[in-house]
Amino acid sequence: MRPSSGLTGRLVANATAALLSAGALEDAAGRVARIADCQPSLMAA
After folding, report:
1. Where do the domains of the chain lie?
2. pLDDT tens readout for residues 8-38
């Protein structure tokens, strides 16, 4: 993604920072990884 100085870029940056500080992004990534581990057939598609 390229840096943006517009409103959308600032909103995305702020939302991402908030999710990172709350740990929500890490939790979501962990859930996706666990699901992928449990369903290897999804990776073959």
Report:
1. 7-44
2. 999 999 998 888 887 887 888 889 899 888 8
What is the identity of the amino acid at 26?
E
Between the alpha carbon of residue 33 and those of residues 8, 14, 27, 36, the distances in Å are 29, 25, 10, 5
Place of tokens 């979501």: 28
**pTM for the whole thing?**
0.42
Q: Which CA distances in Å does 32 have to 25, 37, 39, 40? A: 11, 9, 11, 12
Residue 22 pLDDT: 79
- 5 DSSP 8-state letter: -
